[in-house]
Write a structure and sequence with these properties.
This protein has 22 helices and 28 strands. The protein is an alpha+beta fold. The strands form six sheets. Strands 20-21-23-24-25-26-27-28 form an eight-stranded mixed barrel, surrounded by five helices. Strand 27, helix 21 and strand 28 form a beta-alpha-beta unit. Helix 1 packs antiparallel against helix 6, helix 9 packs across helix 10 and helix 17 packs parallel to helix 18.
């Protein structure tokens, strides 16, 4: 091809070169323009293809979600007994119809036999007749057959059980696994999601002898579902149309029934059109390349374009990597590193500002989170973490930063004017987030949290100082009983250092036998003789002097030393018991000690090795042991009693449910708390209460002991109330082992004198 112009003064070779360059540039420009347009169309097509796939996946996942919402109700012994093979429709009204409507809005439910014949139907939680659902009824037999032959299962099976009429998937321990199937159907003239799940037992596996009944849920693809889908998939103007849209500005996906592929309509939305944005962003570059008319510049521009695309991809990958590195994967909250960086930046800005602002740090820890993991499993714990994060998001201010540091720890940062009441407001806000119970895996959990609060600049100028002091305040909140918040004070730091010192010295004291056992006699109110002894541990620190048990025992419980300390106490008491075989010795058990996994095994081994005569030992527990682990603790107490030990309930009357535990477990003795004894000689009401407690214990065949008797008048009134035994400084302070032996020897001498006088 020859270009029809000639540059004056230039030779034919130069003109040919220029013409070739211009022709090359023209071809390359046209190719470049065409490539840009093709890329735009391809980007639009790929975006619509991705969105279409996401829409279809969402509908499939919604069917599975229906089955998951059914699972808690259909995988249940009670459900199987009522409607798994039977027709207890009154039970199903409550636990299928009403429950699934109230909690998950399953508008239409059907109870179906294994042959596909419907037994009952519910509409919006109320039982309804089966009329008007003939099309769905006709499809039920094939649906049930599909579940029984090719249906999916809600868990991975390890084995298959042989039933009377089929083989059924089960876990390795024989637990049946629910079968299910989902479909997209036409229901009442509209598209709807359907899920059918088998009704199976969850603990009494042998109940499953043949193919069970099935529960079918139908959820219309209505405006609520479309709104949720639109928000989740980031679609604009999502709606259902009966006719296929003809506008190029709208994307759509046909809605087909799962079985017959019958078209029900179209899901239509407005696409984003990323291609137009691409052209708009790159058109200046394209115009510049053509204007300069230089093949070299065009080549460089193409290289630059490729570099920019690569850089964009790398930037996106880097942004994703940075997000992952700075966020908690479970809750998608900022993690410790992210929070620390943000807090440091805020502190720097605060130091340069003169507006009188401060930064509040709230350190939050879920109380007894380990119990949730131990009793309901780690999945329940993960669900609780996500629910707690969402609950905290709802109660916080938009400018607050919420982070998760790992485990069950959350931290909040708030920048606010330093004025009266802001700290209390923060504490109340955090506590309010845990006022309403959480629903986790079908279980309603009353979960509380503890919170420690520190603020700048009063409690630190660096992120590390603020977080450390908030953590110290959190520890103090937990030490005060959990379910509360505490603000940091400087004396807390001193207390923490002292506590840490005691913690380290206590570990050394146990192994070096620096502790000592003393024994306080318990006297018979009728004879005045020693009836038993209570073992008490004492610690005379070589530098700090006497440290009370109510200081070092809680530290042992909180730092994991209670098992070692409890073993040391039992070994010493069991050894000393041999010196006074005629009386019993009482040992106080810690909640941490008795709930330890190997406690019962250790005690049983001591009994089997004849290190102790259980008939001579009474274990004392407080009501606090029972509050959190009542079923587990009552089982352990029953096992201890079976070995021959006696069980006493200490500090009776201080808890709100003491009477309920007397009904659930027959204690051998109850010890009336000293608070009832303190004013008995001056307060008639205190005397009547004590008299009632004694009458209650006597009617239940329990030995009643009053502790804290310090005066003769108190001792007189306790005797008048009919108390069996008394304990307190009026009779004897705690004494050493040798002194206890001496007292018991004089007891035998005194008893002999009484017998001679009686003769």
């Amino acid at each position: 091809m020859r270009l029809g112009f000639r540059v004056k003064g230039w030779g034919p070779g130069i003109n040919w070169l220029i013409g070739s360059i211009l022709l090359t540039l023209l071809i390359l420009s046209a190719a470049l323009i065409n490539g840009f347009m093709s890329s735009s169309r391809l980007a639009d097509a790929l975006d619509q293809q991705d969105k279409s796939r996401l829409v279809l996946n969402y509908l499939e996942n919604a069917q599975f979600q229906l089955a998951q919402e059914q699972k808690a109700q259909v995988s249940w012994d009670d459900a199987f007994k009522a409607v798994g093979t039977g027709n207890d429709l009154a039970w199903a009204d409550t636990y299928f119809g009403n429950y699934l409507w109230s909690n998950f809005h399953h508008g239409r439910l059907f109870l179906v036999r294994p042959d596909g014949v419907p037994i009952a139907a519910w509409r919006e939680g109320k039982r309804s007749d089966l009329s008007g659902t003939s099309a769905l009824q006709a499809e039920m037999p094939t649906l049930v057959e599909e579940i029984n032959t090719n249906g999916s299962v809600l868990d991975a099976p390890s084995i298959f059980l042989t039933l009377q009429d089929t083989r059924w998937p089960a876990a390795a321990n024989g637990r049946p696994i629910a079968r299910w199937a989902g479909r997209l159907i036409s229901f009442e003239g509209k598209p709807a999601l359907l899920a059918a799940t088998s009704i199976i037992p969850d603990t009494q596996y042998a109940l499953l002898a043949k193919t069970p009944h099935f529960l079918i849920s139908v959820r219309p693809v209505d405006s609520t579902l479309l709104a949720r889908m639109q928000e989740m998939l980031q679609l604009e103007g999502l709606e259902i149309r009966h006719e296929q849209p003809t506008s190029a500005n709208q994307a759509f996906v046909p809605i087909l029934t799962t079985r017959h592929k019958r078209q029900l309509g179209y899901l239509v939305w407005t696409p984003r059109r990323p291609g137009a944005a691409i052209i708009k962003a790159t058109s200046p570059l394209l115009i510049a390349l053509i204007a300069y008319c230089m093949a070299a510049m065009l080549l460089v521009a193409m290289i630059i374009r490729r570099v920019r695309l690569t850089a964009r991809e790398l930037s996106a990958s880097q942004a994703q990597a940075v997000h992952i590195a700075l966020h908690d994967p479970m809750s998608d909250l900022p993690n410790r590193t992210n929070f620390h960086q943000a807090l440091t930046l805020q502190l720097h800005e605060l130091a340069a500002s003169s507006e009188g602002e401060g930064i509040i740090i709230a350190y939050i820890d879920i109380d007894r989170f380990k119990d949730v993991n131990d009793t309901l499993g780690h999945q329940a714990g993960d669900d609780l973490i996500c629910l707690a994060a969402e609950r905290l998001r709802l109660v916080l201010e938009p400018s607050d930063m919420l982070a998760r540091f790992g485990g069950d720890e959350f931290v909040i940062m708030r920048r606010q004017d330093r004025r009266a009441g802001v700290i209390s407001q923060m504490g109340a806000t955090v506590m309010a987030a845990f006022q309403v119970p959480f629903t986790v895996m079908g279980n309603e959990l009353d979960v509380t949290a503890s919170c420690g609060i520190a603020w700048s600049p009063d409690h630190g100028a660096t992120a590390g100082e603020l977080l450390r002091n908030a953590d110290i305040a959190l520890y103090q909140a937990k030490a005060r009983g959990r379910g509360r918040w505490r603000a940091f004070t400087p004396d807390m730091d001193e207390n923490l250092r002292a506590r840490r010192e005691i913690e380290l010295d206590l570990r050394r004291a146990i192994f070096e036998n620096q502790l000592e056992m003393v024994y306080q006699p318990i006297y018979s109110a009728r004879t005045g003789q020693i009836s038993s002894l209570e073992a008490l541990v004492r610690w005379n620190h070589p530098r700090l002097g006497v440290i009370a048990p109510d200081i070092f025992v809680p530290i042992a419980e909180q730092t994991g030393q209670m098992r070692t300390l409890g073993c040391w106490i039992m070994e010493r008491v069991f050894d000393d018991q041999r010196n006074w075989p005629s009386v019993r010795t009482a040992i106080n058990l810690s909640p941490v000690e008795i709930t330890h996994s190997d406690f019962l095994g250790r005690v049983t081994e001591m009994v089997n090795n004849r290190l102790v005569d259980p008939r001579k030992i009474t274990f004392e527990i407080t009501e606090g042991v029972l509050l959190d682990h009542s079923a587990k603790v009552l089982s352990i107490l029953s096992s201890l009693r079976a070995l021959g030990f006696r069980i006493a309930l200490d500090d009776f009357g201080t808890g709100y449910s003491s009477l309920s535990y007397l009904r659930r477990f027959e204690f051998d003795a109850i010890k009336i708390d000293r608070s009832f004894v303190r004013n008995i000689d001056r307060d008639p009401q205190a005397f009547h209460i004590l008299q009632a407690i004694v009458g209650l214990g006597s009617s239940l065949g329990m030995n009643v002991i009053a502790e804290g008797v310090e005066t003769a008048s108190q001792n007189q009134r306790i005797s008048e109330a009919g108390c069996h035994n008394v304990q307190g400084f009026f009779h004897s302070k705690p004494v050493s082992r040798n002194e206890a032996i001496r007292l018991l020897g004089s007891r035998r001498t005194r008893a002999g004198g009484l017998l001679r006088r009686a003769a």
